[in-house]
Design goal:
The chain has helices spanning about 115-120, 145-150; strands at about 25-30, 35-45, 50-60, 65-70, 80-85, 90-100, 105-110, 125-130, 135-140. By secondary structure, it is mostly beta strands.
Length: about 150
């Protein structure tokens, strides 16, 4: 089962004027499969452009299989992937899987409880994309509220 299948719903499509924050949405697929996503979306300023980094999050299938995903903006180098870094921990690279016009490009990485605990105990996750010009596009995402939302029912 593809954990990214929930992205086709409108659970996260709305843009709000509220301060960005972590949100959780769950969906039951069939009789036994539950997919929950804890995600965060924000705008970042790059060369006077307000770019929407639509989501970073964790998708969990049946409390066992976990994947971190990032939707990056269009116009980045796909072969370079996405680099993520939680606080002072080592950089983790994620490969792009596909691009969708409205959502941008999605990178996915299978993770374990260690990564989730690092997110719970962290202050921020830094996400880096590479533009065709060689410039780095950086999004700093606060992890404030992640633990409470991730652990909620």
């Amino acid at each position: 089962m593809c954990l990214s299948s929930i992205q086709s719903t409108n659970l996260y499509a709305e843009e709000t004027t509220d301060k960005p924050h972590w949100k959780k949405a769950c969906q039951v697929s069939g009789e036994v499969n539950e997919i929950c996503q804890t995600s965060y979306g924000q705008y970042i300023l790059f060369n006077e452009e307000n770019l929407w980094v639509s989501r970073i999050g964790i998708a969990v299938l049946n409390d066992s299989v976990m994947r971190m995903f990032v939707y990056g903006p269009l116009g980045v180098l796909l072969a370079e992937g996405v680099n993520t870094k939680i606080d002072d921990l080592p950089v983790v690279s994620m490969d792009y899987v596909y691009c969708i016009n409205l959502y941008g490009c999605q990178a996915i990485l299978e993770i374990d409880n260690t990564t989730v605990n690092n997110l719970k105990n962290g202050n921020e996750i830094i996400i880096e994309f590479l533009k065709p010009t060689g410039e780095t596009l950086t999004a700093n995402v606060s992890l404030a509220g992640f633990t409470k939302v991730f652990n909620s029912n």
